[in-house]
């Protein structure tokens, strides 16, 4: 249900513990977690793992104990030092903050209950330029707050009428889409409306045109991403993409009648740094709800997972959307979408995906009902897949850059120059115009939204040929923490649209 790639090349994977079962038991020697059923005075014991650390290099998992608040439908993100910070959840976990890392072998969660100022179930977490986390929304929580330092309590919630105004009968404003703009303000989208908030002054800077057609947030569950930020463009514009979802009462209709309405098929872009922007709309090859919208290292986007009919929540969707779609944002309108080879596995409610350093996409999960069901129209899915975008075709390997990590700088400061060394097996005629260097912030992904996801194209200052096939690029680090919040990023060298394997870099 919840995943985040860590700088250790592990993926933290977790979901609800309310049902007290999973397919992985806590290892021998790790104490079971005591609990009591409502109204009971007798202790029971939960001996199952509700979180694991997944090693992307070995495909092995390490069970983790969730001892305190339930992280069901929570939020999360990576702190500047690589610590994974998880916030909120269900019932006893609604005000919990959890920590993992930053870089420890065999460590467990550090959990703190009753830390947040408001219940945060279906809330959204976004890292800020100073490295703090902004936390907004949740069921019946029409406010935002700032995640405190570890072990401290949140100071207060800030009432945010926008969330009250965008709530409807189906609560189609949960897990609001939040993106950090290139001016330091926060773009916040809920239901079908959006605005720009200054998180320091707490002032609304701007409101944007309503996006017609339907609802975009949970449970209608469309997708959203901040398009790649090109630092070669002196204006460093910020452009938002919002796609799919369903009509406002689709969830109620699915819940009460089990009629699953067609998911929305439109995809919309808005340049939020313009003074008077308007939504630009085009149509996807198929409708999609509960899908993931992932940035790829070459600047394309991937639409993957989800369904063609219905909404989020248990038993409320049908017709899995098996077909991934590649989107090229700089192509002319009408030519941007390309359908790829379909999967054979339904990835519907509670499925997730994330970009890996290899350029592959890690795809997992799907649980369209409570607990585990093996015999069902859409059984509980515990298989994991690696999806390879077209740029990983083996025929292109001779043109793929291979970063020499030992000869490359991994620590950078804002506005400074740093060098990356790489080789290309067939680099005949290679020049600076053939290359791009991108930095990707690995997001926390749940319920069809990748929180904190960000891709930057850096400015190449100098291209150096050491010998044929071996090269260096001197690159300008992002100019400020507004453009790139501090922390760990995946750095890719891209040769004519072909990324090589990334290395982790750290900026502060």
Task: Describe the fold and architecture.
By secondary structure, this protein is mainly beta. Among the domains are: 1-159, no CATH class; 396-507, Immunoglobulins (Immunoglobulin-like, Sandwich). Helix content is 3%, strand content 37%. Strands 20, 34, 36, 39, 42, 43 and 44 form a 7-stranded mixed beta sheet that branches. A 6-stranded antiparallel beta sheet has the order 6-5-2-1-37-38, with no helix packed on it. A hairpin with a 6-residue loop joins β26 and β27. The two termini are 31 Å apart.
Uncertain parts: none
Gross morphology is globular
Number of strands: 44
* Average pLDDT taken over every residue: 96
Distance between the termini: 31 Å
Based on helices, strands and strand pairing, what is the structural class? mainly beta
Strand content: 35-45%
Short account of what is shown:
The chain has 508 residues and is an all-beta fold.
Topology of helices and strands:
Layout: E1 2-5, E2 10-14, E3 33-35, E4 44-46, E5 51-55, E6 61-64, E7 75-78, E8 84-87, E9 97-100, E10 110-112, E11 123-127, E12 133-137, E13 143-146, E14 158-159, H1 161-166, E15 177-180, E16 186-190, E17 193-197, E18 204-207, E19 223-226, E20 229-230, E21 239-243, H2 250-257, E22 266-271, E23 280-283, E24 292-295, E25 301-304, E26 307-310, E27 317-320, E28 325-327, E29 337-339, E30 351-355, E31 361-365, E32 384-387, E33 402-403, E34 411-412, E35 417-423, E36 435-441, E37 444-446, E38 449-451, E39 454-457, E40 459-467, E41 470-476, E42 487-495, E43 498-499, E44 503-507
Parallel strand pairs: 20-39, 34-44
Antiparallel strand pairs: 1-2, 1-37, 2-5, 3-4, 5-6, 7-8, 8-9, 9-10, 11-12, 12-13, 13-14, 15-16, 16-17, 17-18, 19-21, 21-22, 22-23, 24-25, 25-28, 26-27, 28-29, 30-31, 31-32, 33-35, 35-41, 36-39, 36-42, 37-38, 40-41, 42-43, 42-44
